[in-house]
Amino acid sequence: MVLVLFLAFLLFGCTHERDNPYDPNGTNYNPSLFPSSSSSLSVLVPCMHTAGCAEISAEACFASGGQIVAFCPAVSSSSLQAAVSSSSDGIYNSSSSSLPEVMVLCWFSDGTCPLTLISQEACGIFGGMPVQSCAGSSSVSFACAMTATTGTVGVQISPAPAVTCNGVAVTTGLTWTPANRTPTAAGSVPVSVSASSGVCSGMAAQCGSVTVPDPLVCTMTATTGTVGTAITPVPTVTCNGTAVTAGLTWTPANRTPTAAGSVPVSVSAGSGTCSGMAVGCGSVTVSVYSGKGNNISSYRTVVIGTQTWMAENLDYVVEGSKCYNNDPARCTTYGSLYNWATAMALPSSCNSSTCSNQINSPHRGICPSGWHIPSNADWDKLLRYVDGTSGTGSPYYSPTAGKYLKATSGWNPYSGIENLDTYGFSALPGGNGYSGGSFYSVGNNGTWWSATEYNATDAYRRYMYYNNHDVSNYYKSFLYSVRCLRD
To answer: What is the pTM of this model?
Structure first.
């Protein structure tokens, strides 16, 4: 019976005009005249009734046959309030009034809300409530169907989930979670959508979840490392599958361990899609660089004339020895660098005071057993043999010996300078170091200590530069290479 009456009112309601401000589909509709679907029935509203106009509850207005208006004229409303509170038979008949008929969406007590306008009077008689939207009603269906199962941080989920309202596709007025269907973090990410317009305005639906992998990935194949040496090969870093080589910050700094043990390696991105993200690469087992030691069997040797020389620089790690730029890889190539007192195995005070009475002939220093730090006279003998000259002056300066003693590669090139390594001495440009800890000239020059002291602060050295050959004395505190000579 209720349905028959409802259909009758529905037919009647559709014949009314749609140009008054109370009609949601009218050209002059004013939504402020009606409460939303979430409004409380106890909200006071201006209500026009045959008995007058007053602010009463929306429920009372509808029950008494009144109509919600924008405002009440400045007239007494006590008679209306009394009529509403004391009587329920004064239902207003719109057909006998000059007030325009109000066509509304009606929310019934059973939770239904037909998507068709009916008269406000019919809505009240059936115990319903006029609303702006039927969103949330059992009569309205808002749904989201998603086929995507995986996603990527910073990239929109694709294909886009299909959204429908009462079976009709909706593509506009949608608000997504995550925003713009774009995940911002890895993991299982739930996706939902809400409508902001149309019949389903204010409704939300769950679409499902997508699995989002970590976007920043670091792959490291190295398993071991050395204190002071950058880990190699360099770990591979990708962001969403694309290689990243710039804007990376490593831990440990510059991929260079500073302590022995199991060292975790991680990286963070400073730009691009993965900016601000960090990821672990794994761990390496780090040891302290130990060099080759001072056992002569670890070194190549060469006979030049009547002398037997080491054919490479000494790489014996002792207190005070250094690798160029503190990089053990430099020691592997060029050997270690030493100040004079360290090379001579004398007290450090000998770098600033004379120690001639502690120098033996020959003087072993840190050389292998049976070998010694060459004196000025030893160096003179080598250079004269290479030059094919004779004499006794010391120190002997040779402008050409370097040409025959330098390695054929490893030196920075210079026009007109030729390095032949005729005798296999293979002198390399290991560079030098200051006592303060800085280094200079690797690739440009090589300098080797002699055991001969010049004065309290200086000792003799032999020096080969990429564009000339020289011999001189210099500060004992500087860091130079060592070549040992057999006794």
So the answer is: 0.52
